[in-house]
Amino acid sequence: PGVGCIPREPQPAFALLMNKPDDFECWRMPDDGTVQKVTCVKDTKVPNAMTLVIEREDHTLGNILRMQMLEDDQVLFSGYRVPHPLEPAIQLKVQTRTDNPGPVQVVQSAIGNLKAELATLRERFEAAVNDREQHNPRMS
Question: 3-state class of 91 per DSSP?
Fold first, then answer.
């Protein structure tokens, strides 16, 4: 320490995270129904646009949904943001060319397509694991 400096006691790690909510509470929906999983807000300034606030989700879901919706020819814009790192929610915005299919239908379609893709991925992974175990029994 220099002249006039008072040595500071090291801070415990938990003291640095006092504002951080409990991790468990950030991802678990309350049992009392006070928080809706998805809230839809129609955009009044942009035609055929909507913002979906999805509670208790993060970049993992936001990015994969955004990318899946951008593959749809009817989607003009798709993006998401996390309003604040301490808020466990994402805001997913989508704009479509027409109101049929509208933003809600496009999101539902993207979710269905993702489920199908992930099911295919799972099947192929399990088949590859089974094939590997059959050809290399000592690896099991």
Answer: strand
